[in-house]
Design a protein that fits this description.
This protein is an alpha+beta fold. It has helices at about 1-20, 40-50, 85-90, 95-105, 150-165, 210-215, 220-235, and strands at about 25-35, 60-65, 75-80, 110-120, 135-140, 175, 185-190, 235-245. Helix 2 runs antiparallel to helix 4 (about 95-105) and helix 5 (about 150-165) packs antiparallel against helix 7.
């Protein structure tokens, strides 16, 4: 009888644990090269990633160059998808920390560490991708009001629904900052792209999206439901184009 009960309880516990961990999160750290140390910084990150973050014994890590936005000319180190338990393991490994200090911190300033969790309800991801080699990240500086996030969430959801309805091939992954920050980078929209030619006709949403949106919601709805909401509930927004360093 005891074995039978355990046979029921253990799968239940396992299911609850898996459900609780069923999220996609990334850790990111911006790296500002110290004067004249760009090559050493890049090489150092590659060495550190090969030793500790090759994806075999834990989350994989990537290095991106930042082309646009307030951190243009810098790099961003991205690890994930990660779980919170991965952070405990990294902190407990003293050799891991020392390797980062030796190979990375000597050549670049680490700053603006962030933990971003993907909002699956708002994300449109037709190819089921997790990491893109080239991405446009649109950062929304959300106003400090109780109405702001619900209004922006609804706006993003309406856009997702139209992307889904039209069968768009353009993915748009939505991430929330897990912790509040002074910069209030609470919501980010991630658009993967294959080539810089992408920007000939689009800076995010696919060409002709406004027309499709207004077919669903009526004439003038793009301004009212998107443009006006952004103007009212954000203190600005900017684009950050990143390409992976290989």
């Amino acid at each position: 009888m005891k074995k039978r009960i355990l046979g029921i309880i253990i799968p239940l516990i396992t299911s609850v644990t898996m459900f609780a961990q069923d999220y996609i999160m990334f850790e990111q750290i911006y790296l500002e090269p110290l004067n004249g140390q760009v090559s050493k910084l890049v090489d150092g990150v590659k060495k550190h990633n090969a030793k500790y973050h090759d994806g075999k014994n834990g989350p994989k890590a990537y290095l991106f160059y930042v082309w646009t936005g307030p951190y243009s000319g810098q790099y961003v180190w991205v690890k994930g998808p990660v779980k919170w338990t991965d952070m405990d393991n990294a902190i407990a490994d003293d050799s891991h920390t020392k390797d980062w200090e030796m190979n990375v911190d000597r050549y670049g300033r680490s700053h603006n560490i962030m933990y971003s969790v993907r909002d699956e309800d708002l994300t449109y991801n037709p190819a089921n991708e997790t990491v893109g080699e080239n991405v446009l990240i649109r950062v929304l500086d959300v106003t400090n009001s109780s109405e702001a996030m619900p209004a922006l969430t609804q706006m993003v959801k309406e856009i997702r629904d139209v992307l889904e309805k039209t069968g768009s091939t353009q993915a748009r992954r939505v991430y929330r900052n897990r912790f509040r920050s002074e910069q209030r980078r609470d919501l980010t929209l991630v658009y993967p792209f294959q080539s810089w030619e992408y920007f000939e006709n689009s800076t995010g949403l696919p060409p002709g999206f406004s027309t499709e949106f207004e077919k669903t919601h009526g004439e003038g709805s793009m301004k009212k439901m998107v443009g006006d909401v952004l103007s009212k509930y954000t203190d600005g927004r900017y684009d950050e184009v990143r390409t992976m360093v290989k």
